[in-house]
Amino acid sequence: MPAAATPVRHEDILVGFKPIDDLHREFEDILTALNDPAEADYAEHLLALHEHLLRHCATEERFMQQESYSHLARHKRAHEQLLESVSEVRRRFDSGDVDAVRRYAADLMNWFSIHAQSEDAELAGYLRGIG
User: Which pLDDT belongs to residue 1?
Assistant: First the structure.
């Protein structure tokens, strides 16, 4: 992460639709644990992150399918890239690259906040009936 990057605030990942906000809070808790050098059990927390993201993406995609959301394909591509990135970090961790996990965990919240403020906020607006 560049030194000039602005820290992500908790509010940056909330989108005003409770089911999605609940997923985002859970994501934040897992990522916080992964980023805490005193607490990080990389194997455990990385697995928890991956499992959470699988469920998280599937839940959002289910909302999009049920409501015939017109940007499903675009949003799903972002999810696929995210899931591939966490899979790749897990592969790297399994081969002994702990630094890859540290870098990924340090940078992921910035990506996530951008995704939340764009893709997820647009979806939340649609689901609330104002999109």
Answer: 37
